[in-house]
Design a protein that fits this description.
alpha/beta, Rossmann fold, eight-stranded mixed β-sheet, 31% helix, globular
Length: 245
């Protein structure tokens, strides 16, 4: 029998592959759904790794707000955020929301085949109503895009925190996954990461420099950084044996 795990322990390096593209609860306040996103085909191994990472985290009672970030662009954080959303929605059966908070290089519109706006920035500044779209093929997973390109990111996140808008989302969604901007690439990354209760850092195996990981750890704080997901690592351990660990 394994020893009891501490409340805040670093995660083991998850083996994530993103170079290859699965009781019904519906939040009552969602005013516009506009159908569903297109289905995103993720490898089963990928979703399993996201599932293991999600269940390794310790949250306080109430809603769970998890931020996914990286040091730089193209480390695979958005793919991990999507996989984490699917895994948490399937396993818990609870309303789960994926929020795009990368306002400089938004990608949800392209990934999910949906309109870019209205989205987060439009809802926060009051120019449009909230729009959450169901993430196919699930009924309890939803997506919120970043919204209008050109919005002032610092103002968006300041208003999101000051006006307690995130609390409104917490009241309706048990699981909230935030696709944060990369910490070392944009100026507003510190402000954005304050929205999350816990943060996972995505690093690309053999690419992300250790000094960048150390810099992000200092920026986020060791008490809030719950672990590291190593992306692109091809394990030699058989899949059936990894599941026993």
């Amino acid at each position: 029998m394994s020893a009891e795990r501490p409340t805040y322990r670093p995660l083991r390096l998850a083996e994530v592959f993103v170079d290859r593209p699965r009781s019904e609860l519906t939040p009552a306040f969602v005013p516009r759904t506009r159908g569903r996103t297109r289905s995103i085909g993720l490898p089963e191994d990928f979703v399993d790794c996201c599932r293991q990472a999600f269940h390794s985290l310790q949250f306080d009672e109430g809603s769970r707000v998890l931020g996914i970030t990286s040091a730089l662009f193209r480390d695979g954080k958005t793919s991990v955020a999507v996989g984490m959303t699917l895994a948490s929605a399937v396993d818990t059966g609870e309303p789960t929301l994926l929020i795009e908070c990368d306002l400089e290089q938004p990608a949800f519109s392209r990934i999910f085949g949906i309109e870019q706006r209205p989205g987060l920035s439009d809802w926060v500044d009051g120019s449009d109503v909230m729009r959450c779209i169901r993430m196919a093929p699930l009924d309890n997973a939803f997506v919120m895009t970043a919204g209008s390109v050109g919005a002032d990111p610092a103002r968006v996140f300041y208003q999101l925190s000051r006006n307690h808008l995130l609390d409104e989302l917490r009241n309706q969604y048990r699981n909230i996954i935030i696709d944060l901007p990369p910490m070392l690439s944009v100026a507003y990354s510190r402000l954005a990461c304050q929205l999350s209760d816990r943060i996972l850092l995505v690093a690309r195996h053999g690419v992300t420099p250790m000094r960048d990981l150390q810099a992000v750890t200092q920026m986020v704080g060791k008490e809030r950084l719950s672990g590291v997901v190593l992306n692109g690592y091809a394990s030699r351990v058989p899949r059936w044996l990894r599941r026993l660990s």
